[in-house]
Every structure is written in C-alpha cells, then in structure tokens.
Design brief:
alpha+beta; four-stranded mixed sheet; 4 strands; about 50% helix
Length: about 190
C-alpha cells in the first residue's frame, strides 16, 4: 500500500511539473500546438493522483461466525399457541410473538446496563388501535425447570412487576384450551 501511495505522489509531482512547464512562455513558443494537450493531461493526472491518494474504500465487515436465516420464527407448539391467543378478542387485541423486554419496558435508572431488558417474551398482547403493550405471555416447556431458566424467569417476572406490565405463564403440558387461555388472559389484562 505504501508503494502504491509513493507511485501516486511521484505521478502527482510529474503532473505538477508538466503543468508548470506548459505555462512557461518559452515552452509555448517552441511547442504551441501541444500546449493545451500538455496542460489538460497534467491537470487530469494531478486530479487522478489526488483522488487515488485520498480515496478510502469502505472496509468490509468481518464476521467471526457463520450465520443463516432460521426456517421458522416459532416452534410448532409456539405457533399453535399463538393461534389460540389470537382468538382472544381479535377485534380489540393484537398478539405479537417474540418481543424483547426492551421493546415494551423502559429502564428509568442508569445504575447498570440494560442487558436484562434484552430477554425475549414469547408473546405480547397490545391494544389493536394504539399498540400499547398490555400483557406479556410466556409459554414454558420442560427446559424452564432448570435452575438457570428459573433464575431468568424470576428476573423477567420481577422486571415486569416493577414496570407494572402483567405477565402470565402457561406450560406446554398444561391446559392450553381456548376457554382457559381466554379467561387467564382477560383476567390479567383487566386487572
């Protein structure tokens, strides 16, 4: 790269020298027919060298990992449960899947990072007209019986309680019938 810069600098000064010679009266007397050509070529050479010297191409972002698009946003049980949730007063509520806490909760103190708000809840009921978040819903499977997941779930519940947004939890192996789900959801929203 330094070698290339050096070449551009040399050619810039060559162009500058040619330009200076083309403007001298003695050069015009002997080479009147090439005066304009030499002036134009020297100016073009200087402009090209200046652009080449100061142009910085955008660096490509280097990724250390491999990424690929997921085939599904929701697992089949999550999707089936979404269909049940969407039956609860569809004229009044929208159900948005996979909502990060930071989308519905704002941290008001600067005591630490907001990383705890990057946890994702399975579903969020929002007002259909205003899109105001009304209720968060979790659908737990057996992985939520692990200690680390229970800690995470307790933290999410505490954050939701502090933010005064209701959170209800359903279990995949529990009663997911429409009447039960409807009753639980409406009771939580209307609190």
């Amino acid at each position: 790269m330094k070698f290339r810069k050096g070449i551009y600098i040399i050619f810039f000064f060559v162009g500058l020298t040619l330009f200076a010679f083309s403007l001298m009266p003695f050069f015009r007397e002997f080479h009147d027919d090439t005066f304009w050509i030499m002036t134009l070529v020297s100016v073009a050479l200087m402009i090209f060298c200046l652009v080449a010297l100061f142009y910085k191409p955008r660096e490509k972002v280097k990724l250390n990992s491999k990424y690929e698009r997921k085939q599904l946003l929701l697992t089949p049980p999550e999707y089936n449960f979404l269909l049940v949730l969407r039956q609860v007063k569809p004229e009044k509520y929208e159900v948005v899947p996979q909502v990060a806490l930071n989308s519905v909760i704002e941290k008001k103190t600067n005591t630490s990072y907001r990383s705890e708000l990057f946890r994702v809840c399975d579903y969020c009921f929002v007002d259909k007209d205003t899109f105001e978040p009304l209720l968060l819903v979790e659908l737990n499977d057996r992985s939520h019986l692990r200690a680390d997941r229970q800690d995470r779930d307790a933290k999410v519940a505490a954050i939701c309680a502090a933010a005064k947004i209701p959170l209800v939890t359903f279990w995949q192996d529990g009663d997911l019938s429409y009447p039960t789900v409807r009753k639980t959801v409406l009771k939580a929203i209307l609190k």
